[in-house]
Here is the input.
Amino acid sequence: MTSHAQFPPASTTDYLTLDVVTKRYGGKAVVKGVSLSVARGEVLTILGPSGCGKTTTLKMIAGFLEPDDGSVSVDGARVDKLSSHQRGAAMVFQNYALFPHMTVRRNVAFGLRMQRKPAAEIAREVDAMLARVRLSEFAERYPRELSGGQQQRVALARALIIRPKILLLDEPFSSLDAKLRKQLRSEFLEIHRNFGITSVFVTHDLEEAFAISDRVAVMNTGVLEQFGSPTEIFSRPRTRFVADFVGHKNIFTGEAVASADGGSVLAADGLSIRLPAAASGEVDVSIPVHRVRVSRTALDTGNAFRGDVETVAYLGPVVQTTVLVGATRIESYLSASPELETLRSGDKVEIGWDVEDAVVIPGAGPA
Amino acid sequence: MSAFRRHRAAWLLALPLLVFLTVLFVIPVGQIMLLGLFPKGEGPTFALFEEVLADPFYHRVAIRTLRIALLTTLLSLVLAYPVALHLRNVGSRWQSAIVLIMVSPLLTSVVVRTLAWVVLLSNRGILNQAFGAIGLPPMRMIYVEGAVVVGLTHVFFGYMVVSLMTSIRRIDENLYAAAANLGASRLRQHLEITLPLSLPGVLAGSVLVFILAASAYATPSLLGGLRISMLAVEVFNQAITYFNWPEAAVISTGLFVLIAAVVWIATRVAEGGRRKVIFQ
Here is the structure.
């Protein structure tokens, strides 16, 4: 056992909480009433396109910005008047912001030196931390002499050595190529498992968010569009924006009318689509691509239409097909099968999905 | 040779300047230096060098030259650092305005600027008149080393600001945020980040100001007079007043060697050891 205190074990109570936090710049709100929470030891990702307010939100959690309204709490205590250091929020910057004139050892020791700990104690703790992030042999190197992955580990070690309550990461992988991103992502997850620290991550990359997070907050134009687990966000998007952003392709907008069987029927784009629940008025409905079936023979699904194959792409284990029903394009993403492999552009097919597979998007409203 | 081939275009582009420097700088300067080795058209002999090196008067002038140049460099550094630091935080419009003000002394003639200091500092000058008006005795403020240092600092301060500013502005803003995040106070941030990372600017500015101050002629001759002579002033005296070109050549060579030695040592010290990484 090293001199390192273990981070507290994960629990289900909320550890970091944002309560209707708002930030304005020159009268213009860039973050509007965002409420979030994350449990101890979990990873929360704030996901959204650039300019959606996600970095501003992170800076308010970090203590670099003060919210104009609302509050930030850590472990039950309000922290929004405290500096980032006082509130125990350690930040990993987009470019890592390692001190270029200091060795790895001095970078990692920085926080402890600021606490004026005795040199011997600092040396001991730094050695232990470097061993934990597998950097011992690089202790005397300078940041420029390290690979991207090693730099990230230095940045994490430098942040973690002051034993912060929360770890904040501002798009740390955004400037890297796809292969390196995946590698760094798994390195981050490994270190996160190792330290079990509550983390907040900002990214615009959907795959990244889903791969590392326990909870995801989707933001757009300063508003929290949806907050939930990755599976919730993908399978039950609450708004049209979220559905688009997480990659839903078959989104129908139209007028719904309740039907006798407890469901309803949506008239959209010249199609009559049966919906699983009672709905009325204008609604958005998404049909997940992996639920849409395509066949040369009649389908027994609740919704089935005749159409023409527009494009077929064989992507190894899956086949991506687009079918035109009248003028409406429907996309399907299915496991490869002998029948699908014979499909050609222009073929007449039946396309359909079960009534239960349609996802009704509730639309704007409290997330 | 392959390196030359690869960079042939660059060499060709640099050629006009190389020719210009060779014809108009290297050859004349070399000739002047040779003048000291052939004092009466014969030689080569180091007799004149030995004579000058043994002369206590020149010892005093050389040491004074070094002292004044060093003090000017230090004073410029101390005055320019806060300005350069402040320039980091102001908007770009203010930045150019302030830089213009800092560099403006360079836009007027050295003689005009220095004469303004004479008017200010002389025995019956504006400052002494002001002292007299409030009942203070007149002070000797001209023809002292301090006057030369102040005058030179005024002239060369702008070079220091610009050198410092370029290296301070290059420092990544996130480094400060990271340091603050790890518990560094404002002062500690500057000590740990600004100071070491601005060293290239400190070195460049100091070398520049030192060279200019050590070889200055107009300001020391106007503000130092005959009492506070510097090596460049002696070069002028020997060459123009006494028409003793060989001795002027020897003093010039001595000044050149002195400056080169100081710059070399300063550069080695500043870039030495662990600080090497900052200069890469």
User: Anything to note?
Assistant: Residues 112 and 118 of chain A are 9 Å apart (CA to CA). The first helix of chain A runs from residue 54 to 62.
